[in-house]
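Recap slide: Tetraspanin, sequence and predicted structure.
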Amino acid sequence: MEGDCLSCMKYLMFLFNFFIFLGGACLLGVGIWVIVDPTGFREIVAANPLLFTGAYIMLAMGAMLFLLGFLGCCGAIRENKCLLLFFFMFILLIFLAELSAAILAFIFRENLTREFFTKELKKHYLRNNDTDVFSSTWNSVMITFACCGVNGPEDFEAVPHLPYSSWESTTPEACCQRELQSREGMFVNKEACLTGVERFQNRQGCYTVILNSFETYVYLAGALAIGVLAIELFAMIFAMCLFRGIQ
C-alpha cells in the first residue's frame, strides 16, 4: 500500500511539474511578446521603468519555471532526493516572489488611473518632439490605437507649444486620422484636422481604447497567475511528501 501511495505521489508530482513547465513556457512567451511586440506596446514598456522591469521579471520567472518544471519532472521520475530538495527550495522562492509581486501590483494599482496619466501627459508631453522618449511614446500609442490624449483632444489645450513652432493648433499631428494606423500611414486630411475639423480627428481617449483592448488579456493574465500559484503550491506539497517517502 505504501509503495502504491509513493508511486501515485510520484506521478502526481510529475503531472503538476508538467503544468509548471507549461506555465513557465507561457510566461516566457508573454514576456518576449511584450518586449518585441511591433504594435507600439513595446514603446510604452520602454518608457515606463516599472513596466520595463516587470516585463523582464516576467521573462526571468518564465525561464525559471520552465527549468524547474523540467527538473521537477526528472526528480519525480528518477526519485532523486537531491533534485526534489533543490526543486522544493527554488519553487518556494519563486512562489514567494510571485506572491510579493501580486501584492505590490495591488497596492500600486492607483498609479494606473486616468487622472495619473492625464497629469503626466499635461506635464511632460512635448507634442511632435520625437527626440523626447515620453512624447515619442505617446505619439506612437495615439497613432497605433487611433486615439487622442488620455480623455480626448481637450487634454492638449493645457499643453504648451514648442518655442520654435509657428503652428498654433492645440491638436497634435498624432491625433489626426490616417488611412493606415502607423507612422508611415497617409493623413486623411492633416490641414483640416489641425484647424479643428473634428471628423478628421481621432476623438476617443486612449485610456478607454487601451483599457477595452487589453481588458480580456488582464483577466486572462490574472487567472493564469492564480492557476500558476495554485499549481506551485500543490507541487511543493507533493515534492516534500515524495522526498520523505523515498528511502
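DSSP finds eight helices and no strands in the chain.
The chain has two domains: 1-110+235-245, 114-204.
(End of recap.)
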